[in-house]
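Private note to self, pasted from the team thread so I don't lose it. Backbone tokens:
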């Protein structure tokens, strides 16, 4: 295994950031930690990259203990934190050269590894990092995390605040890096990105709720799911929540996702109820559960 985490717990005073977390990441796998702010993702990343000590439990990265072998781990992992943390007053080229020097290498030595990414920002190599766009900063940060040819790459919410086109390009780059044999542990609050991982762990309040492939997790939703809409979405949500047979009600884009407690549920019954509540242009159709639906089910 490339990463092993066994019964890791961490607290900050009275706040329990991680509670008995355990999972494994296979070599060459893209493994996603999925959860909202405060789920414990960043704390876990800091423990695995040897920046923070856990209260209890143990973990290994590239078969090395995160406490005993912390110096060796730092030479073999790349870490891209959630916030842009490079030197804003240095140019693109100066930042990359600085990080290469720290690890005793050069841009030229590992250029092939970062070429697909760096070629997009190389025309701006003399520009200060602080003057780059969000997508360009992201590519520079990833280049700096890769310049020493790490075996494991840690990416903490790398696409937060980045435009959709840059997000898509970023994940295409990750797929190419995976083909080079790099293990990637990535955290994200975006459920569409979760579907791009080989396996994911759903996190909430410092706990692992479920670990499996994205497809299997989506299929674990316990009942049939329906898209429901009407002319008044806010009133629709309130009335669905008040319906005596509702199992769950969540807004989902232009629809409301509705699940019923009855095994013999007939959508006509729901249609009649909503008409009694004076809803108009009612639409009810069956739909496939998503990772987000399962996450909401597990965390509710």
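Design output:
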């Amino acid at each position: 295994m490339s990463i092993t985490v066994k019964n890791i717990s961490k607290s900050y005073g009275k706040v329990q950031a991680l509670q008995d977390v355990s999972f494994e990441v296979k070599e060459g796998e893209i493994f996603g930690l999925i959860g909202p702010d405060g789920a414990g993702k960043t704390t876990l990343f800091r423990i695995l990259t040897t920046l923070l000590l856990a209260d209890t439990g143990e973990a290994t990265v590239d078969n090395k203990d995160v406490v005993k072998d912390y110096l060796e781990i730092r030479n073999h992992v790349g870490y891209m934190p959630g916030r842009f943390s490079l030197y804003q007053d240095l140019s693109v080229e100066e930042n990359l050269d600085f990080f290469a020097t720290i690890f005793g290498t050069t841009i030229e030595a590992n250029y092939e590894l970062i070429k697909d990414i760096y070629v997009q920002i190389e025309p701006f190599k003399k520009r200060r990092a602080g003057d780059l766009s969000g997508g360009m900063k992201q590519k520079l940060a990833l280049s700096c995390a890769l310049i020493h040819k790490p075996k494991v790459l840690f990416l903490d919410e790398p696409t937060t605040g980045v435009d959709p086109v840059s997000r898509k390009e970023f994940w295409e780059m990750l797929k190419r890096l995976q083909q080079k044999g790099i293990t990637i542990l990535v955290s994200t609050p975006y459920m569409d990105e979760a579907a791009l991982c080989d396996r994911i762990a759903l996190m909430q309040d410092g706990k692992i709720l479920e670990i499996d492939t994205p497809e299997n997790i989506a299929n674990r939703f316990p009942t049939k799911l329906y898209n429901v809409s009407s002319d008044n979405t806010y009133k629709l949500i309130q009335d669905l929540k008040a319906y005596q047979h509702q199992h769950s009600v969540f807004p989902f884009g232009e629809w409301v996702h509705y699940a019923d407690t009855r095994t013999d549920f007939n959508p006509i019954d729901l249609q009649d109820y909503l008409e009694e509540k004076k809803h108009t242009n009612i639409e009810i159709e069956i739909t496939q559960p998503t990772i987000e639906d399962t996450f909401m089910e597990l965390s509710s």
